[in-house]
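Why do we bother with holo predictions? Because pocket geometry can differ from the apo form. Keep that in mind while you read this record for 5-hydroxymethyl-3,4-dihydroxypiperidine.
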Amino acid sequence: MRFSVYHLLIAANPDDPTVNIGAKSLSGEGYRGHVFWDTEIMMLPFFLFTQPAAARALLGYRYHTLDGARRVARDGGNAGARYPWESADTGLEECPIATPDGQNRFYTRDEELHVTADVAYAIGRYREVTGDAAHLLDEGAEILFDTARFWLDRCEDEGERLVLTRVMGPDEFHSHVDNNAFTNRMVRWHWEYAVEVYDELAADHPALLAALEGTLGISRTDRDAWADGARRIVSPNDPECGLIEQFDGYFDRTEVPVTEWDENDMPRYPAGYNHFNCEDTKLLKQPDVVQLMFQLPDDYSLATRRENFEYYEPRTLHKSSLSPSIHAIVGLQVGDPRMAERYFSRSAFVDLDDNQGNTEDGMHIASAGGTWQIAVVGFGGFLAGADGLQFTPELPTGWERLRFTVQWRGRAVAVDLGHTDSVFRLDGAGAPETITVAGEQVVLRPGETVRVPRDGSR
Ligand code: IFM
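The structure, written out:
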């Protein structure tokens, strides 16, 4: 944990919004320093809850590279702005076209579009967790609106429904797929949030909205088109939808059982398979539907999340270092802790043990963020959103206590979780904060320490 936290802390610069964190941080030359969705989804939560100024600066990088994103959209023949899969100083696409031997094409650069919705999601999370609306007014709204335009242009209108074809979801074993559930659902989220922000600006900051409309060449008609797009895009919206098909036709692909595991108890490629030939199979490189359950946990019932976790987890090979942490967390959230400690070790030791076999190219800094999230979000059962702060701790038997502090809307909450009790302290001034601990409401007053016994007998 300390290895992870140390590397996260030295990687971010709260004073420079023009830089970001490459997938290997500054520890090696793998990926040539390029920035991925790893920042918004794997690392940003750590900064949001511990160093909001660093989180703000990391978002600033996406504003700084917005012109590049406009160019990426234009080069692909689309309107608006689309963030590149691999980004550097200009925001243009930096992902190589093929492997160095020229044998295998990287379709991620053309098809892994979801990064644009992930940036929108991060903007929304920043606002929600920090309560800071200034970022939206200064930078966030412009990003949200121009990227919302991209999606509308990129989707195809089939009358009743909007479809999104020829994409790649987070699972990089499957390219050229149609209606990837993760991507489409995140696009819907993106549009809904863009509409919410548009309406907020119309009500509270009409002059700013008018200026933005002038700069971007948009109007209320665009806002209405996003709202309509959110209603019509093919996506798994019903909380009780049960098993979600990862993309059109996924269930028709070949079932290839995993039969061998390595010394870390992680799946090996079945005989004859490798990174580039799993397209026709149901094998996953990393979570995709399960990633959706992680990013939008409140949108799906426990039964739906559990059913999807149980279906996709045994088919996932974890060939991305981002994979174990997401599986640990979603497994814990759906009441399947069997593998959580093993996934935690896999994530925490990725570079200490070199368990992905490529630490010589640089460390996996996304895993550092994932490791922090397994502890806090997974074992701490921590969620922060419209319902405030929630904790449903379930520590591994070998852990005595788990202590951390989270920043929440300008104040700090010190958290100390054990097997038989949890202790909280709200720092800062102002009104009391009501949190939820194992389903029970607990009132925290500034400066007071509150102990919550596990059996609820306070
Ligand atoms: O962003 C990740 C991707 O999800 C899997 N391949 C490696 C990338 C960089 O870490």
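DSSP finds 16 helices and ten strands in the chain.
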